[in-house]
Write the structure tokens for this entry.
Amino acid sequence: MAWVRRGLLDRDAGWGDQFAAMTETATPLIANARMYSVAPAAAAAWKRLFQWLERRSGIALTVIDHAFPAPLDELWARPDLACTFMCGWPFYRRGAAQRVVAAPIPSAAYAKGKPVYCSHFVVRADSRFRSLEETFGNRFAYTVPESHSGYNAPRHHLLKFRGADGKPLYREIIGPLMTPRLTLEAIAAGRTDVGPLDSFAYDLICRHMPELAKQTRVVASTETVPIPAFMAAPGTPPDIVAKLREALCAFGGDPAQGQLRNELCIIGFARMDEKDYGVTEAWAREAEMRGLEKIL
């Protein structure tokens, strides 16, 4: 089956002639970076990455937006999905059906050169809070209950502060706020006192929305776990996945892409195994077994 077709490549003057004779009969494959398109400039940078990926891999990709508030579940369920970010916890909890392509390696210090991330506990820059413990008894926000970074990871982190009496740590839980950016905006506006932020999303907001980011600061962070990876639909042929993976793993070594790496706050991509995301479910089960099914 011919899975390579004309797409973004036709719009690149250096590659159009080379791929002009390729078949267009196969189902188009789509790419999307919704989870980390935290600002227009970030979204534009991800689209440039997909253009590079198409040229490098020879796999034609149709980039779609699927912007908020369109449900992520609808995106993740598409049979033509070739390359989109998917949160590791719902991926693993639902049976790890999608094919893992590759995961970004954040350039931030917390990643230590690995494809990992964490959840930051963020407060207003001018708040009185200097530690996570000082936020207890106030208002806590979350993104959605299905999110690892926006719910599962902070819930697990809070276990060590939970007393034997099960008394709530916060007087009010605010959410769902849906996205990291909306959560950060709520913190900056004073609609909540503290909330968890996907560290990679926070990196991108700091780079592309510095005026918003500077209104906030981090008071604590969870342990790191494998970062959300680019994934493909379950039925994507293995050779397509392999070509995309090989290309992405070469991105960090392409000297011509240094500026794009900076804009994406990464040093490259790495191979991942579906089993790597099992830690997210282990954290969930530990919290649930200890009576913290919901953040309180």
In short: The CA atoms of residues 83 and 205 lie 22 Å apart.
